[in-house]
Amino acid sequence: MNTSLRDKWVFITGASAGFGAEGALHFAREGAHVVIGARRVERLEAVAAECSKAGAASTHFHELDVACTDNVKTFVEWLKGLTPRLDVLVNNAGGAHGIDTVAEGKDEDWEAMIESNFLGLMRVTRECLPLMMENSGSTIINIGSIAGRVAYEGGSVYCGVKAAEKQITQSLRLELNGTGIRVGTLDPGLAETEFSMVRFKGNQEKSDKVYEGLHPLVAQDIAEAMIWMATRPPHVCIDEILIKCTAQAAVHKTHRETS
Ligand SMILES: NC(=O)c1ccc[n+]([C@@H]2O[C@H](COP(=O)([O-])OP(=O)(O)OC[C@H]3O[C@@H](n4cnc5c(N)ncnc54)[C@H](OP(=O)(O)O)[C@@H]3O)[C@@H](O)[C@H]2O)c1
Predict the structure, then answer these.
(1) What's the whole-number mean pLDDT along residues 100-124?
(2) Which residues share a beta bridge with 140?
(3) Whole-angstrom Cα distance, residue 237 to residue 141?
(4) What spacing in Å lies between the alpha carbon of 95 and ligand 1's midpoint?
(5) At what angle do helices 120-132 and 156-175 cross, to 10 degrees?
(6) Is the CB of 131 under 6 A from ligand 1?
(7) Ligand 1 pocket residue status of 142, Cβ below 6 Å
(8) Distance 193 CA to ligand 1 centre (A)
(9) Which of 186, 193, 196, 214 to mutate to test the pocket of ligand 1 (most atoms within 8 A of CB)?
(10) Where are the alpha helices (DSSP H) in 30-119?
(11) Predicted model pTM
(12) How many other C-beta atoms are found inside a 10 Å radius of the C-beta of residue 126?
């Protein structure tokens, strides 16, 4: 029997925009208790209001910077005050910073990517595991990327941290074997969110070019996959999902209409 999300506790990192915000809304529609974190609290407040309207059993938000261990610990202490049990953890916070070659790369971009996508996922998972250990059938969904499977020019560190995400996911699945906790990676391809605006540091023109002439994935496509992964029957673990838009046959082959 499928797992119902009604009254289940779901925590999504990086839920102030993109996949995280849309994922929160989708879990809310399933009647879950939705807990969200990110650095932009005013954005979280708006997402939380939408979740409440959409039918969440309850909605909770708190500032979260996954790049900071103390901040993650503070967040999870607050979370423990809400619930003794977590049913779904979505490690989504992250993104790319810059598209420089290794030769031109900037320390601050590399560090930001490693801190959020890699160490952030580790910190959040470590702190949340005690809330999941006695909870067979619970689900950890790590948001990876097609970039973790195939490298591209200018993507060295981003591809590297997303490749690491895949190894972390596999290690964790081995470590949790026998607990009943499912661990999977959800790997999107080209998707139109704030991702490219962040990568190109607010340059709208460069960001628009990424999606020019094709129909990219949208946040809803990924949110639907989160729900599907979390609602499989407890004996089913979705190890990996790769989702690309139809126009993206591979990292290096996308079909674009020219006008
Ligand atoms: N869009 C794509 O093409 C694509 C493809 C494959 C994978 N992904 C991955 O999908 C995930 C979500 O990206 P998105 O496309 O939805 O991008 P987005 O619209 O830019 O959303 C990124 C989210 O991550 C949060 N975040 C970033 N750094 C954080 C930190 N240090 N602490 C807490 N939250 C942080 C942001 O919130 P604040 O800024 O408010 O903290 C925001 O809510 C990322 O892991 C990204 O690498 C994206």
Answers:
(1) 98
(2) 89, 183
(3) 10
(4) 5
(5) 20
(6) no
(7) no
(8) 9
(9) 193
(10) 41-54, 69-82, 107-113
(11) 0.98
(12) 13
Ligand 1, residues 39, 47, 162: which to mutate, most atoms within 8 A of Cβ? 39
Amino acid letter at 210?
V
91 pocket-lining for ligand 1 (C-beta < 6 Å): no
pLDDT at 2: 87
Nearest to 102 by CA among 162, 156, 152, 147: 156
116 touches ligand 1 (CB under 6 Å): yes
232 close to 238: Cβ distance less than 8 angstroms: yes
Residue type, 245: C
Interaxial angle between packed helices 69-82 and 120-132, expressed in degrees from 0 to 180 and rounded to the nearest 10: 30
Q: Copy the structure tokens of residue 201.
A: 């540091």
List the domains of the chain with CATH numbers. Answer: 9-254 (3.40.50.720)
Strand-pair category, 248-250 with 253-254: antiparallel
* CB of 172 shorter than 6 A to ligand 1: no
Task: For Cα atoms 171, 176, 182, give the angle at the middle one, nearest 5 degrees.
Answer: 95
pLDDT (tens digit, 9 = 90+) per residue, 168-197?
999 999 999 999 999 999 999 999 999 999
Catalytic residue numbers read: 158
